[in-house]
Amino acid sequence: MRFQPLAVSSLCLLALVTVVFAAGCGKDAPTAPGDPVRLEKPPTFVRQWGGYGSGAGQMNEPDGVVVSDSGRVYVADNLNYRMQRFTTDGVFVNAWGGLGTQPGEMYAPSDAAVDVDGRVYVADANNNRVQVFDVELKHRTTFGAALKLSGPKYLAFDGDRIWLADEYNHRVLLLDRAHQPLGVLGSGKRGRSAGEFHKPEAVLARAPYVWVIDTYNDRVVLLRVE
Question: What are the sequence ranges of the domains in the chain?
Fold first, then answer.
């Protein structure tokens, strides 16, 4: 499938997009499962772990975290150029990566996501790519060159689809499980109007909603995608 950017005004693959900025969200804002605004009680502190350093379980500017269905916690340990895996109790299991450009090596990994088969997708931001590891954490594939990624920052699964915040391209990509493009949000150039972004850094999807952290526009964009 040939990648063709879609104008926001004609998102034929994304039939309906409604934009709501954070400042405008109130009682009438759309709800979604797990929306933190809807919490009735404040959270209770459970535990913390980490601490500055490069040893096992230590971290240097950790950037992203995901919990798998099997109960493992994966942390993107950004400036240690690695991923770390923990139990949900914060017990260190193992780490992998290391600074470099070869398969399995990383340069400032910023986020991770786990698919239904237990494969770990790592946003290897400064290498402008996403790496995929199997349940044994063996490198399986890398993608990004054909998409011309520039600083892929955060990613999220939405069923069989992948949302990927492509920071320095000022866009958010929608990909299928074969890592082929289905559509794109944003013009590819920085902007402030509806449907434009300036270095979007994070994305979260819970169908039919998609939240985008539009970092340098100082806002959250809420999209309804059907």
Answer: 1-38+144-226
pLDDT digits (tens, 9 = 90+) for 148-179: 999 999 999 998 999 999 999 999 999 999 99
What's the CA gap between 220 and 174, in Å, rounded?
18
Say if residue 104 is exposed, middle or buried (CB neighbours under 10 Å; 0-12, 13-18, 19+).
Answer: middle
Fill in the amino acid letter for 2: R
- Strands of 20-21's sheet in order across: 20-21, 219-224, 209-214, 200-206
Instruction: Give residue 67's identity as a one-letter amino acid code.
Output: V
Cα–Cα distance measured from residue 166 to residue 169, given in angstroms and rounded to the nearest whole number: 6
The helix/strand/coil state of 85 is strand
Amino acid present at 168: Y
Which residues, including other chains, have CB under 8 Å from residue 78's CB and lie 6 or more apart? 60, 61, 62, 63, 108, 109, 110
**What CATH number does the domain located at 1-38+144-226 have?**
2.40.10.500
Amino acid at 47: R
Residue with tokens 């919990």: 67
Which one-letter DSSP state was computed for residue 119? P
pLDDT digits 0-9 by tens, 12-39: 333 334 344 343 444 344 555 445 556 6
Considering the entire predicted model, what is its pTM?
Answer: 0.83
Contact 222, 19 (CB under 8 A): yes
The candidate with the shortest Cα–Cα distance to 85, out of 115, 122, 53, 45, is: 122
- Closest CA relative to residue 141, chosen from 120, 159, 158: 120
How wide is the angle at C-alpha 133 spanned by C-alphas 129 and 136, nearest 5°? 160
Q: How far is Cα 136 from Cα 52, in angstroms, rounded to an integer?
A: 27
